[in-house]
Amino acid sequence: MAKEKKIVKVEKDETKKEEKGSYGFDKEGKIVKVENKGDAKERAKTKRILAIVLWILAITFEVIGILRLTDKINWFSNIDKVPFVIGAIVLDLAFFIPGSLLWKKANHIDPRSEKNKAAFWTWNNLGTILSVLAFLPIIIFVLTSKDLDKKDKTVVTAVATVALIIAGISSYDFNPVSSEQLEKAQKEVIAEVGVDRVYWAPTSKKYHVDPDCPAFSQSETIYEGTVADAYEKGLTDPCRRCIHALEEEHEEEEE
Ligand SMILES: [Zn+2]
């Protein structure tokens, strides 16, 4: 016999004018609170502000590294110049990557229109563009330094170049979402089931319009939410299996 499935809902609380936290029941029948979601645009805005703060902090570490390299400051004078500068580059990267990940996440919650392709690309890959600013200047200062010997220059340049590549790639959005794409997906779901409501399991790669989709046969918990909620989880493709099943049902009804 099939296991009984538990549906975890992501519901809207009208009185609070924001989406209430999702809840449901675990295996023992206990209520599970998943997360507290606010308005999509507001949530995206918070993530974008935090991303910018993290990027600024990252670039601040680069500037500190450059200042120490050029003897403008002498902080932590007990640490040699080379390990200090490498430490600054590592901190630069450690703040830069979370900033970029938040930026990309915000753009999946509140996507931008793709009508202007250049603006769309620039906005989605702002982290990749900024990674040049976060690592290239220090590379130039290292290479032109009169203070460092050849070996030190090679080591620090290698570290900064690897950091630049890691930051650039991790900031790039390989699967960007546009507002048109999200709107089309919402319309399709509404056309099929009459309401913006979809389902997914923790291991799902797609969202489903039918909570009884065979894809859920092994799932004990499934989540219910809007298409935007599914997009936020990185699920941007609908399960064709349940959409086709629904379409067949509609056709039978019409006959
Ligand atoms: Zn399905």
Q: What are the salient characteristics of this protein?
A:
255 residues, mainly alpha, 2 domains, two-stranded antiparallel sheet, binds zinc ion
Structure notes:
The protein is mainly alpha-helical and 255 residues long. The chain folds into two domains: 6-38 and 178-254, no CATH class; 40-171, no CATH class. It is 56% helix and 9% strand. The strands form three sheets. The protein has a three-stranded mixed beta sheet with strand order 1-7-6. It has a two-stranded antiparallel sheet with strand order 2-3. Strands 4-5 form a two-stranded antiparallel ribbon. The relative contact order is 0.13. Residues 12-21 and 28-36 have low confidence and may be disordered. The chain binds zinc ion.
Bound molecules: zinc ion
Give a quick account of the main beta sheet: strands, pairing sense, barrel closure: 3 strands, mixed
Q: Give the overall shape.
A: elongated
Overall mean confidence score, pLDDT? 86
Which segments are poorly predicted (pLDDT under 50) over 5 or more consecutive residues?
12-21, 28-36
How do the strands of the widest beta sheet line up side by side?
1-7-6
Fraction of residues in helix: 55-70%
Number of structural units classed as domains: 2
**E-strand count:** 7
Would you list the SSEs in sequence order as H and E? EEEEEHHHHHHEEHH
Structural class: mainly alpha
Q: Strand content of the residues, in percent?
A: 5-15%
Q: What is the CA–CA distance across the termini? A: 33 Å
Question: Radius of gyration in whole Å, from Cα?
Answer: 24 Å
- Number of helices in the DSSP assignment: 8
